[in-house]
Design goal:
The complex is a heterodimer of chains A (about 170) and B (about 260).
Chain A lengths: L2 H9 L4 H22 L2 H18 L8 H20 L1 H4 L4 H10 L2 H12 L2 H11 L5 H8 L3 H19 L1
Helix pairs in contact in A: 2-3, 2-4, 3-4, 8-10, 9-10
Chain B lengths: L1 H15 L5 H16 L9 H11 L2 H12 L1 H11 L4 H24 L6 H7 L4 H27 L7 H23 L6 H21 L9 H27 L7
The chains are: A mainly alpha (about 170), B mainly alpha (about 260).
């Protein structure tokens, strides 16, 4: 069923479609939260909070790109989460995160994730949205509330920093 | 481009290792489902839904009166032309008055909100009065404009005018009278006799100029008519906006 129709039915009280949306986008949102926080356990909570906020504000959603809308909520949830938990103050990743990454044996990926967390929120968000979720600069701009040029410069500046960090 | 693709690959690889625990996922989805069922969903109607609801609140009698006024427009013209034997340009003012009278039907319907505590009462019934006012003003005025324009297209040539100028000549007094009416119904109600006197004087003067001065219908004056029409539409919009804002605020008291 098309998303617009599904949302209309949700508006009419058919909550079973919320389950369908959550099931469809859960993995995407979870991974986004992982990228943003670097904490896999915490990402579960943030993903759930994203969908709970979506339920709360679904009546404000006026159609369009649902995945983008959910990612925008996730972005705000992660920002709020960071503010509350101040994980970044310690400058370290949670233990389980590192262990899990080492078990998978891909050091480069671990470094990339670690380096990502060194970037400012707005650059990390823009980079992840562009390179992993394949959003265009225009769409990133709309999701983060900035112009296309700013979104583009955030991606390129962030990428520059990322390269430096990885070297 | 190659660099872009490489980065995409890196990020995809990174994401691939973020394995999701199916038990935790199911638990989270169950929680989401529970929250959705708990009734935390709020229904916000779409614009088309709102319009439908508002339309359903407009009584049939309003549409009937409005359509009657508009349907009688050709008869009004016939009466002015043949019975009163008025000149072509004098008929314009008659038609404008007729069109403005049509808008009176709209105002009279809304006038009940000025009855003691009626607006407050309707708001307690979850009626969005500003929506209601705006939609009715736009619908009924839109209908009037459409019919007047169509009528202009049909009859303009018989008066030796183009369709455009004919429509402008009829619509200008129509909007101007609407501006005065809404003004009197809002600000004027507390303004005392002076406001009513000046409003009546202004309206009378306008009507007199329109009915007596044939030279204002010369082509050279068309830009002035257009300017007046634009100003009247702008004022009408401002008045409606101000009125709606007042109703959306906390201090609603139309009495």
């Amino acid at each position: 069923m098309n998303e617009k129709k599904m949302l209309r039915l949700i508006g009419q009280g058919k909550t079973e479609y919320i389950d369908e949306i959550a099931r469809t986008y859960y993995d995407d949102i979870y991974r986004f939260c992982c990228f943003q926080t670097g904490d896999r356990e915490w990402a579960y909570d943030l993903t759930q909070e994203t969908f709970l906020r979506f339920i709360r504000y679904v009546d404000h959603y006026s159609g369009g790109n649902l995945k983008g809308y959910l990612l925008t909520i996730a972005m705000n949830v992660c920002r709020d989460g960071w503010k509350l938990q101040k994980h970044r103050e310690s400058g370290e990743l949670p233990e389980d995160y590192e262990a899990a990454s080492l078990v998978s044996g891909v050091e480069e990926r671990l470094l990339l994730q670690k380096a990502l967390l060194e970037l400012p929120d707005f650059q990390r968000e823009a980079i992840v949205l562009h390179y992993y979720y394949d959003f265009k600069y225009r769409e990133i701009g709309r999701m983060t509330g900035v112009g296309t040029a700013t979104a583009k410069s955030r991606v390129s500046q962030g990428l520059g920093k990322l390269k430096e960090l990885l070297e | 481009m190659k660099d872009e693709m490489e980065w995409e690959k890196k990020f995809t690889g990174c994401a691939e290792q973020m394995k999701i625990d199916p038990v935790k996922k199911e638990r989270a989805l169950y929680g989401i489902s529970q929250a959705a069922c708990a009734g935390s969903l709020q229904y916000r109607p779409t614009v088309s839904d709102m319009i439908k609801v508002q339309f359903s609140c407009i009584p049939g009698s309003i549409w009937a009166f409005q359509l009657l006024f508009l349907a009688l427009l050709p008869f009004a013209e016939y009466w002015l032309q043949n019975r009163l034997e008025l000149e072509g340009w004098q008929i314009f003012s008659g038609l404008s008055v007729w069109a403005a009278a049509g808008s009176l039907v709209f105002v009279s319907e809304l006038a009940r909100h000025f009855s003691c505590k009626m607006a407050e009462l309707e708001q307690t019934c979850y009626l969005n009065l500003s929506q209601l006012w705006l939609l009715r003003a736009c619908c009924i005025s839109g209908l009037d404009i459409l019919v007047i324009a169509a009528f202009g297209g049909w009859r303009a040539e018989s008066y030796g005018f183009g369709w455009f100028s004919f429509t402008v000549y009829v619509l200008t007094p129509f909007f101007a009278s609407n501006v005065i009416l809404i003004f009197l119904f809002t600000k004027g109600r507390r303004g005392g006799r002076a406001v009513w006197f000046w409003a009546a004087l202004l309206a009378g003067l306008g009507f007199w100029i329109q009915a007596e001065c044939s030279w204002i219908y010369e082509a050279a004056w068309l830009p002035v008519w257009l300017l007046l029409l634009t100003a009247a539409i702008a004022l009408w919009t401002i008045e409606l906006r101000a009125f709606c804002r007042k109703m959306e605020g906390e201090g609603l008291c139309l009495n």
